[in-house]
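Hi Prof. W.,

I finally got the Lrp/AsnC family transcriptional regulator prediction working! I wasn't sure whether to trim anything, so I left the full sequence exactly as given:
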Amino acid sequence: MVQAYILIQTEAGRASAVADEISRLPGVIRAEDVTGPYDVIVRAEAGTVDELGRLVVAEVQRVPGITRTLTCPVVHL
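And this is what came out:
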């Protein structure tokens, strides 16, 4: 299982709606509004890195109001 944090910037005033919609996507563990340089932080999981990439590109980035994403895979050192 591959897990990652997805840091999301949104259009002004859209963070709550974006987090709510993303939280319903399969593979999303949690989506929360935050303050700082990013507006929403998502914890997601998938079976492989490729599946994680498809989740981000085909599902998350299609949510209206998102302007930029940064995906940070979790590593176990």
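The chain has one domain: 2-73. Does that look reasonable to you?

Thanks,
D.
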